[in-house]
C-alpha cells in the first residue's frame, strides 16, 4: 500500500512535517488535481487543515479520471452527497472508500470551509498500482473456443470490465450446438440478457430475460460478472445491479454441449457493426485470462480489429445541476451571419426546461428552444406575440444522449432531433442570433436584462456544442477564456439513474427527474413513497376487528415482506374467524373403473402460491382440511400391516406421502372409525376396507399442520368390476392469528424487553398497538454509533417518531384530539425510506417529513432493540404493547416476557376497545385472545349481532313462544303485579320488529298472559300500525293467526286477520321468538304444506310495501319468572292449526263487522292513565274515524325519556 500526500500545489511522498499551502482567494469553482502517474486503485483519502491556522475545508467532492477529462464523481454507497471535511486545522479525517476507485487522476473540489478562515488543505490518498491487460475494440471482437471433452467444472464464470461511449452493441455471447445460446447486449445504455433455445429457428429473435444497469455508455469503467451453476444464472453489473435467474428447461447442465464458443464483443463474426465499440480489461473465463492466452498464441483464442490499449475520444461535457446554472456564449458577428446554426447533444430526466435562448436583433424579438412534455419545441416571439412555433421528437427525458440541430437560412427554419424527426417552417425572413446565446437558463435578474426564461431551467448534461458549424471549446469556458457561466460542472456529466437499482418495492414503477424519483404503486397492493407498506391486513382476524363482516378479502401475511397478497374468504359467522383458501376441486367427485387404469391420481391447485400457503398456516392458531371417501367395493387403506391401496400427499412443496385418513392421527394408517373403534368391520380400521357392496364412507378432518395442505390424492382400488368411489378434499380452513394477539404488559417504567438489532437500512416499517393510562413513555428504541430510531408517547395526545441516519435528528409528530391514555387500543404505524419518514396514528392522516435530497441513505444501528423502555432505563412505557412488527416480521413479545422480570405475557381487556362493534344489544364478552359478541339478548345474529333474522310467512303460518309460569304467589288475583315482584317489575314492554307486506289489514303480533291479559299489534285497513293492549302477566307470545280459543274474548275478532309477508328481528323484551324458531337446535315439527322459511325482508320484492317500526309500550306488566330466564321457553312453529278455506271465507265477511264495531267501541272505551313516577301525562287527540286507535314510536330510547302513555281497550 502506498500513499500520496498533496500540499498545494505540489505532490510529495512521503510528506515532511510542514505547513500546507493556502489559497488566498477563497471563492467557488476551484479544485485540487493530483496526477498519480499511472492507473491506481485508490482505497482511502485523508484531509487535514493548514498547520496552526484557521484554514480548513468542512466538505468537499471527490472526482476521478483516467485521462484528465470526463471526470466521474465518487459516491459512497450510503450517500449521494459530499464528503465531510475537518473541524479544525490539526485533526486528520480519513475516509475508506466503500468501493475502491481505479484512476490516474484525482480531483478534490472544496464546497465549504471554515467561515472564519480560508481554504486550507493537506491531502493524502492511499492505494496501490493497478495493472491489467486492456483491449480496444472498434467493431472487432474476441472468440474463445472450448476444447471438446468432459468438463471439469459444474459451472462457468465469466468476468470483465468495459467502457464505451456507444449505447448499443453485443458484449458477450455463448453458443452451443443446435443454436442454443446466451448473449449480453447493450441497448439504450442498458445491458440485456437474451436467450436462444433449440425450438426456435436460428434466424428468429432471441427471448429477453432480464435488463440490468443503466447509463452504461458514459465512458466510465463498469464491471460485469456472469456465473452459472446448473440452471441458476447470476448476473451482476457494478456490484449493485444483480439478477438471479433460472434458465429455461431446454438449457443443459453446462453452458452448452461441447463444442462451445464464447464470443466477446462480437455478435456475428469478429468484425461487425453490431459488435461492441469500446475498451475491455480483465477478461477472465473460469480463472483463465483470455487476453494472456491470446498473447501466448493459444489457438483457442482468435481476435479481429483489436489493439492492446484503450484509445478514447475526448468529449467534454457540461452539467447543469441546479436552478442557478447557465452558460453564456458570444454570438457571431452580424455581418458574417445571415441566419443561425446551433448544434448540441443533451441528456436529462426532466420533461421540461430551457435549452437555448437568444435575441433577434433585426426583428426585435426572442427565440426559445426548450423541452416541454419531453418534446423539443421552438418559439419565435416578437412584440409579445408568437410568430412561429415548431416541435419535434418525443420521450426525450429518457436519460439518453439526443442530438439537436437548429438552422435558419434562405427563409426556412428547421429543428431536428437525432437526425430523424424534424420540424420545418417558412420564417419569411432570416432568423439571426444576437450578440450572445444563453444555454440552460438565465443569470439572476439583477445581473442581466438580456435573458428571459418563462420555461424553467434545464437540469442535465450537454456536449458537442457547435455555433455556426464551429465546435465550442468548453475547456476555454472552464478557464474563463470564453463566455461566462455559473454553477456548472464542466468536463463531466453528473447524471444519476435513481431508478437503477430501483428503490420502488413490490413491483412499483419508478420514474424520475433530475433531483428525485417517484414510485407508482397503483395495482401493486402497497403504498408509501417506495411502495413498502401493504394496504391489506395480515389476517381475517384483523379484518374482523376493523368491523368487517364475512366476504372475500386480500390478506398480506407478512405485511411489507416479500410475500404477495392473496385473495381468501373470511367467514366471520362463527365464534372463530375462519380463513378459507380454495383449490380447483372442492366438490364431491365420483370415480369409476377405466380400462387399463389401475390408479386414479388427482392434483389440487390452490388459489394461493406456495409461500403464501405456508405462511398462512404458520401464522394461524389452527388449520384443518376435510378429507372424505365414499366407496362401494373400493378399499381405501387396507390394514396397518399391509400396503395401502390409496394415499395422499400433503405439506410443503410437492408434499410427503401420507397413509392416514381424515379424523385419524399421522402415521396411524387408520381412518376416523378405527380411532373411535366403530368401523363396520372390526377387522379393519376403515369402513371402506370392509369391501362391501353397500355404500360406506370414511371422512374426517386433517388437523396436523405439517401435513397441510393436501397436494395430491391417489386412489388405487378402483379397477375392479363393480367398484365405485367418490372423494372430496375441502378447502383449507384456518382460524386465529398468533401475531395479532401477541402482547406484553409493562408494569414499571424501568421494565423493558430487548431483541437483536433491527436491520432496516434502506426501508423500515414498524407497526404495533398500545393501550395505557400513563401520559408518556418510550415504545421502542434502537441506537447506533450516530444513527438511532425511536418511537414514543411524548404526551397524552402526541406520538413522536424520531430518527437520525447521519443527516441530523428528524422528528415526525402526530397529535390526537382525544387522550391516548384512555386504556383503549391505539394503532401506530411508522415508516422510514430513502425519500421520507411517515407516522400514522389510528385513522388520523399520516404525518410526513421528507429526507434531504443528497443525504445519507442507510440507517446503521448496532445496539440491542429495546421495547417498552430505553438503554438508560428512563422514560419507560407503562401499559400494553401487542402485534409488534418490524418490516413484516412479528416479534414474539410473549415468549420474551415470560423470562423477563417486570413484564407479563398477554394483555386482557379488549371489550373497552372493540365492544362498540357489537350492535343491536349484543354484549361484548372477553376472551384470552380477543372478544366475542354475545347475541343472546339480541334479535340479530352474526359476528357483531348485525345480521337480521327474517322469515317469510305464508297464510296460516304461526310461531308461538311460551313463557314459564310465575310462582304460585304471583297468581294471587288480589295483588297487583307491581307488588308481587317489586324488585324485578318492568316499567313497560319493549317490542320491536320489522316487516314487509302488501296485506291490509293484518295481525303482526299477539301476546297473552296466564290470566287472560293480552296485547295485539296489527295493521289497519289504511296500512298503518296499531296496537290493542290489556294488562297481563307474561304467558305466551304468538306471531300471527292465534287460535280463537287462545285469544282474549274481546280481541277474538282480530284472530282471523292473519299475516302474509316477511317479518324480521322480532323482539319482545329479552325474547326473540323468530330467532329462536329459526336458529334453535331443538327439532321442530313443520307441516310440509306450511313451512317457515328464512329470508331477507329488505330485498326488493315486487310492489311490497316496506315498513320498519320499533315500539316501547310503557305498561307495568308482570316481572320475569325468577326461577328461570324470561326467554327459557321453546318456540313452536305452526302450534296453532292453519285455517281452512271455509274459515277464510268467513273471515272476509267478518272484517267489515269488526271494523265497524271497533270504530264505535274506540270512542267510548278509550281512557288515559297516569304514567309511573312523577311524570305528567299529556293529552292524546282522539281520531274520529273507523280505524283502530293506535300510537307508533320509532325510537324506543326517545320514548322512555319523554312522557310515556298507556292505552287500554
Automatic annotation (TrEMBL):
F5/8 type C domain boundaries? 1-128
Task: Give the species this sequence originates from.
Answer: Gasterosteus aculeatus aculeatus
TM regions (residue ranges): 1141-1166
Report disulfide bridges, numbered on this chain.
Answer: 880-907
Gene Ontology CC terms: membrane
Q: Where is the composition biased (Polar residues)?
A: 1188-1202
Q: How does it sit in the membrane?
A: Single-pass type I membrane protein
Q: What InterPro entries does the annotation carry?
A: ConA-like_dom_sf, EGF, FA58C, Fibrinogen-like_C, Fibrinogen_a/b/g_C_dom, Galactose-bd-like_sf, Laminin_G, Neurexin-related_CASP
Q: Which UniProt keywords apply?
A: Disulfide bond, EGF-like domain, Membrane, Repeat, Signal, Transmembrane, Transmembrane helix
All copies of the Fibrinogen C-terminal domain together span 531-583
Q: Where in the cell is it found?
A: Membrane
Ranges for the Laminin G domain?
134-310, 316-493, 742-907
Iron-sulfur: is it a keyword of this entry?
A: no
State the family named in the UniProt similarity comment for this chain: Belongs to the neurexin family.
Name of this protein: Contactin associated protein like 3
